[in-house]
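Annex B. Sample input.
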Amino acid sequence: MACFAFCQNKKPPIAEAVKNDTIKVIDTEYREDQFYAGITYNLLGAKPSGVSQSGFSSGYHFGFIRDFPINQRRNVAIGVGLGVTSNSYNNTLLISKAGSKLSYNVLNDEDVSYDKNKFTNYAFELPIEFRWRTSTATSYDFWRIYTGLKIGYVVYSSTKFQSGEGDIQLSGVEDINRFQYGLTFSAGYSNISFYIYYGLNKMFKPEAIVSGSQEPVGMNAIKIGLMFYIL
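Annex B, continued. Sample output.
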């Protein structure tokens, strides 16, 4: 879970200090525009009965955030950006298809032997953040706390089941919600921040039902990781 960012001085310098024949240029209208990149460990919340996770479920996140300071000191700002993300979830819910109908079955290790079972989605995302930091126009190592909302639109999804008896692979899973959104929080110092995302809506549509029960597949995403910032 990680984010990369760099500071950009978008407006011309308007202040300078002179000492020992050295001119120091200070931009009092600096911004913390950022490129970010992160890696997360992905968890599934509100899982149906019998569903569990196994292995490492990963997420990768890349994008850019534009910074809009809202106070004179410019250490408080609103950030709005655009990014891309890929997320995989290793779990024990088998997604298969017969004709045009999707089915969802909980895998039991006693009955089924398999090597891998996961679903993956790829999305564009729009982060909107309220940002606080201890930065100044001349300081590039500082504490930061960013919190906000991230809205995602899934452009592609797939599933993969591998076993000694055969493989099942699907793409474009219709029951996955295209729009997914959640709360974000990141805090750290210098180039590295701790990051967490908590999904507010379900990953699967209401019509996705676990076979043999009336329990919806549902589930929400929880992502924990690091954000690295490129200064």
